[in-house]
Each structure stands twice: as structure tokens, then as C-alpha cells.
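Friendly challenge for the regulars: who can give me the C-alpha cells for this chain first? No prize, just bragging rights.
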Amino acid sequence: MTTVKRIEPGSAFKVAGIVYAFLGLIIGILTALFSMVAGSLGGLAGGGAPGARALGFGYGLGAVIIFPILYGIIGAIGAAVYSPAAGWVGGFEVDIS
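First reply, four minutes later:
Bragging rights claimed.
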């Protein structure tokens, strides 16, 4: 068993930022699809408010743009916090074969 006590902050920052941004993109796309479907279903049922479909599309498009940015920032901050936290509690234990 090997313990990872420190990860270079710059490399962890980049990797976590990219991984979380990709995750945010996937969640943003799913949110966009759900909001567009919900907007179109409300319009088909006749009970939807005027402009609900456009609002759903706008929210979905915003999610595809905003979610990757927010998730990337959150992931990068988490990576920057890892080294001090690992110093306090000991870090990840990894079995390397």
C-alpha cells in the first residue's frame, strides 16, 4: 500500500477542471433535453404558459454553457484543497501492482 500525500497543485487543478467541466457538459446537455421536452409537452397539452417552450430552450442552452464552467471551477477548487487536506488526514492509500 502506498499513500499519496501530495499532488502537484497545477496538474491536479488542470485535470480536475477538465474532468468536472466534462461532467458539467453532460449534465448541462441532459438538463437542456429535459427542459426542451418539458416545454414542448406543456405546449402540446394546451396548458402551457405562452413562451414556456422558449423559456425551456433558453434555460437548457444556458445550462449547456454555465454548468461546465461552474463544475470546472468547483473541481479545480477541490483539487487545490486536496494537498492541505491530505497533509492533515494522510492522503489517499493506493495499492500499486
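The radius of gyration is 20 Å. The mean pLDDT is 77. Your move, everyone else.
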